[in-house]
Amino acid sequence: MKTVVEASIGDLEKIVQIDSEVIGNTSRRNYIERSIESGKCIVAKPNDEIVGFLIYDINFFECTFISLIIVSPSSRRKGYASLLMDYLVRSSPTTKVFSSTNRSNFKMQRVFEINGFIQSGLVENLDEGDPEIIYFKSKSSG
């Protein structure tokens, strides 16, 4: 059974391992640890094994912002990103949920679209030549 739960500090090593599989290093370890400690990290767990995680905050104009969503490469295309996003939108402490991805990241753009997020803006100059697309979804459209 696929479940989503708030991450605990005991999940840190597995989450960092998944993140490292994707980005090739453990540079976000402290960020992930702080997110877990502040209750802003959720994990997808089929059969008690973590396969993905989502980190959010509420510092984006006092709205929920998904800052990181990672699914283990071996567990992709099985609905875990959608499961995490749906859970967060339904349980969001704010009525508006935002996130972003680079214009070059077509796979993530498709994930947002499949999950009912709409484009809400564009931010230039974060990554040279690769603008960031801002996405939005209202909790009520959930």
What is the secondary structure topology, with strand pairs?
Blueprint: E1 2-6, H1 12-23, H2 29-37, E2 41-46, E3 52-60, E4 63-71, H3 80-91, E5 96-102, H4 106-114, E6 118-123, E7 132-138
Parallel strand pairs: 4-5
Antiparallel strand pairs: 1-2, 2-3, 3-4, 5-7, 6-7
Description:
Pfam families: Acetyltransf_1. This is N-acetyltransferase domain-containing protein. The longest helix has 12 residues. The chain is of the alpha+beta class and 142 residues long. It is built from four helices and seven strands. The protein has one domain: 3-Layer(aba) Sandwich (Aminopeptidase), CATH 3.40.630. It is globular. It has a seven-stranded mixed beta sheet.
What's the domain count? 1
What's the average pLDDT? Answer: 93
- Could you give me the name of the CATH homologous superfamily? Gcn5-related N-acetyltransferase (GNAT)
Over the alpha carbons, how many angstroms does the gyration radius reach? 14 Å
Determine the structural class based on helices, strands and strand pairing.
alpha+beta
Protein name: N-acetyltransferase domain-containing protein
Pfam family, one: Acetyltransf_1
Domain N-acetyltransferase: 2-140
InterPro entries: Acyl_CoA_acyltransferase, GNAT_dom
Index terms:
142 residues, alpha+beta, Aminopeptidase, 7-stranded mixed beta sheet, Acyl_CoA_acyltransferase, GNAT_dom, N-acetyltransferase domain-containing protein
